[in-house]
Amino acid sequence: MRGWTAVYYREILILKTKIFRQLASMSVMPLLYIVAFGYGLGNDVTVHGVPYLAFLIPGLAAMSSMIQGFNIASEINIARFYWRVFEEFQVAPIHSIAYVTGEVLFGITKALMGVSIITGMAWLFGTRLSYNFYFWTAMILNAFLFASLAVSLAMLVKSHADQALLVNFVITPMGFLGGTFFPVEKMPHWVQIILKYLPITHAAKAMRAAALGKQPDMQPYIVLSSIGLVLFLCALFCVGKARD
Amino acid sequence: MNGTNHKHAIELVNLTKRYKKVEALKGINLHVKEGELFAYLGPNGSGKTTTIKILVGLTKATSGRAFLNGYDVDADPIHAKRQCGYVPQTINLDHELTVFHNLDIHGRLFHMERGKRRDRIIFLLNYIGLLDRIKSPVKELSGGMKRRVMIARALLHEPKILFLDEPTVGLDPAIRRKIWALIKKIQMDGTTIFLTTHYIEEAEFLADRVAFLSEGTLITVGKPKELINSLGQWALDTVENEQMKTLYFRTQEEAKKHAVLHPGPFSIRRANLEDIFISLTGRKVAP
Prior knowledge:
Chain A is mainly α. Chain A has helices at about 5-15, 20-40, 50-80, 85-90, 95-125, 135-155, 160-175, 190-195, 200-210, 220-240; strands spanning about 45, 50.
C-alpha cells in the first residue's frame, strides 16, 4: 500500500495548476442541464409527485460522480502516452495496489468536487434536498466504481483516441439512460431489464432516495460495492499487466 | 541469489525477450562490476533499451534472469528497484509542475522521509547546478536542463546503480559535454553506471568497459582501449571500385607505408569503437 500518497499527491498538484479551469468545466454541464431541463420544462412538471428539478438534481449528481470518476482515465492516458510519467510509477518500489488506490482516490476527490458544485447550484436555484450520509455514501461508491473502471481501461487502451471511443459508447449512453433525467419505470420493460444492470441506475436510485429523504434501500449499495470491488481488482490486474 | 550475497552490481543470465514475432534479446550473459561505468552500444533496435527496461522493471524477460546487487528483478522487484535509478531516453517529467515537485514526488514514491527528501533535493540541484531553478515549472527549462533534472531525480533515493538510456540524445555538443562531466562525477562518487548510447565518442570518453549488441546478440565486451588495440590503433580508409575499405595497423607508419600502395584517395586516422563494431558485424553503430 505504501506509495499511494505519492500518486495521489501528484494528481492533486496537477489539479491545483488548473483548478479554475477545472471548476469552470465541472460547472458548465450541470448548469446547462438545470437551466434547460429544470427551468425549460417548467416548475409545473412533476415526477412521482416531486418537482422535476428536485428529481433531476440527484440524477445529475449521480451522472457527475460517474463522469468525474471516469475522467481520470484521460489524465492517466496523458501521463502514459504523452508525458510518459507513468514509467515513473512503474520503476518505483511500489505495488500496483498503491498506484490504483492513489488514482481511484483522486477520481473520488474529483467526483466530490463535481457533486458539491451541483448541490451548491441546486441551493442557489432554490431546490433544498437532503444531502445526508446515504447520499454521499452512494456517490462515493459510484465514483469508486467508475474510477476503478477508468484505471482498468486506461491500462488496456493503446492510444488517447481509443479513450474517446469508450466515453462515446459507454459513459455518455449510461449518463442519459440510467435514471438520471427521467424515471426508469417509464421505459419499455425490455429497456428496464438492461438498465437494471447498469451501475449508474443503482447510483441514481440510491442518491435520489436519500436526497428526497426516503428510507434507504440497501440493494443499490450492495450492487455498487460489489461491482466496484470487482473493478478495483480488475484495475490491479491491468496495472500489473501494463508492464508487458 | 539474494541481496547480501552478490559479486556484481548487474548480472544478466541467459536473458531473452520476445515481442510477438520479434526476438529482441537472444540469451544475453553479462555482468557489470560495482563502481564501473559500463556502456552498452548498438544501433537502433539492437536491444539496448529492452535490456534496461527489463532491469528497471518496465518489462518482463521472456526467459533468463537478471540481478541488481544480487536481487532478482523478477522475483524480488521491490528490493531490486530500490537499488537503481533510471533516466529514460525521452523526457518524462511533469511539465506543469516545478522542479522541486517533480523530485519530491519521486522521493515520496521511494518512501523517503520529508526532511531527508528536502535536504537531498537541495543537495542534488546544487550538484547539477540548477538550485536557482528549484521553483521553476519544468516547461520553462531547456532540453539540457530537463535532462539534468531527470538525472537528479534518478539519484534522489541514493541508488547504487544508475541506468542512463541515451542520456545525451538530441542535445547540442556543448550541453552533451556538460552531461558527460556530470556522469563522470556521479561515477567518482561511487555509483555504478550502465549507459546506452550510439554516440561512439561518448562511450570512448566515459566507459570503463563497453559491450556491443547487434540484433539482440552480445557481440563482444571489453575495455575500449584493449578492443581498439586488438584491431590496430590506426585505420586506413581507401576507396576501391567505388567501395570504401578500411584496413587497420598498429602504428601510423605502417598505415602510411600501406597507403602509398593504393592508387586512389585515402585517409589515415585513429581507429575507434565504431571500427570494432563494423569489423564484427559489417554495420555501423550510429544511424
